[in-house]
Amino acid sequence: MNQQAHAKTVKSHFEYTYQDYNRLIPKLVPGYFELKKSILESIKKLELERANILDLGCGTAILGEEILTFSQNYVYYGIDISEHMVKEARVRLSEFDERTTIFQEDFFNLHKLDLPKIDVVVSMLAIHHFKDKVPLYQAIQKIVSASEGVFILSDLVVDPRKNQEVCQFRKNHMRSEGMSGKEIDEWFQIFNDEDRPSTVQENLEYLTKVGFQPKVVWQNQSYATFVCKPKPN
Q: Largest Cα–Cα distance of the chain, in whole Å?
C-alpha cells in the first residue's frame, strides 16, 4: 500500500473509530500527558517572544489550546486530514479565533497551504503513520530553515509487534485504564493497520539526513520527543 492509500485508511479510522478521541487517547498512549508536557516545555525553552506555530496532525487541538493559552503572542496553524477532528479543533479554539487557522489537508500538500514564516513546527502522535518519513522531514526542514525555526516531534518509536516487552507495556496500560481484553485486541488490530513507527535511531538518521540536528529530550518505552534545529549553512 502506497503512502496516499495508507493515509486514506488512517483518515477513515479517525473519522469513524476515534469519535471520542479526547477521552480515548490517554487510555491508548502510556505516558500521554508526559509526552504532551515535553512538547510544551520544549517550546517554552525556546523563549520566543512571538511565534507562528504549525501543528502537523493537530487532531482536536488539545495541544493547540495549551500553546495558545501559554502566550497571547503565539499564532497557531493546525493541519489534520480528518474532517471530524478539524471541526472539533475549530470549536475548541473558538475563543482564540483571531490567532488560529485550521486546515483540513494531508501532509503531502503542505506546499499548497497559505502560511506565513513558521517559527516552530510541532507534531504529536501523527508521523508514525507514514512508512517513508524522509520526504515529509525534508518538507518540514524547508519550512523551519526559512525562519531559523525548530521542529519538535513527539511520536511512537517502537513497533509493539516487534517487541514483546513493549507490547505488554502498552496492553498493561490499556488494561489499567479499564479496557477489556476484547477491546485491547480490537485496538491492536487498528494499530496494526495504521502504525508504521520508526525507531529512535532511524528517526535520528532520517532527520540528520535532511539537514536537522536532532536531539532526544524525552522518552519512555514506546514514545520519544525530538527537538530538531536546522544545521547551520
A: 53
